Amino acid sequence: MRGVILYGPPASGKDTITRALYELDKCYVLFPRLKQGTAKTVGYRMVTAEQLDDLRERGELIWENARYRSVYGIDRSFLVTGLRRMFLSSTSARSRP
To answer: N or C: which terminal CB in the chain sees fewer CB atoms within 10 Å?
Structure first.
């Protein structure tokens, strides 16, 4: 299994690079981060401050940062589910004749 993490400020080209990688190999997809805040919502899974607090308390929030009056995060269960789905689809594709 392979992966690439693109991390940078808004408008730095992450979506553009992800689209280009996807054209080369469909295994590359944009991981929709959590976002609590306003402004751009496309490409994010919007949550409330209370939902972020709950994820923190349960140890589910594995990364978070605050920028431009918003809080962004990555939750463990959504990441693990996505990785399992990608792994299972890539292994089943390799096992086909």
So the answer is: C
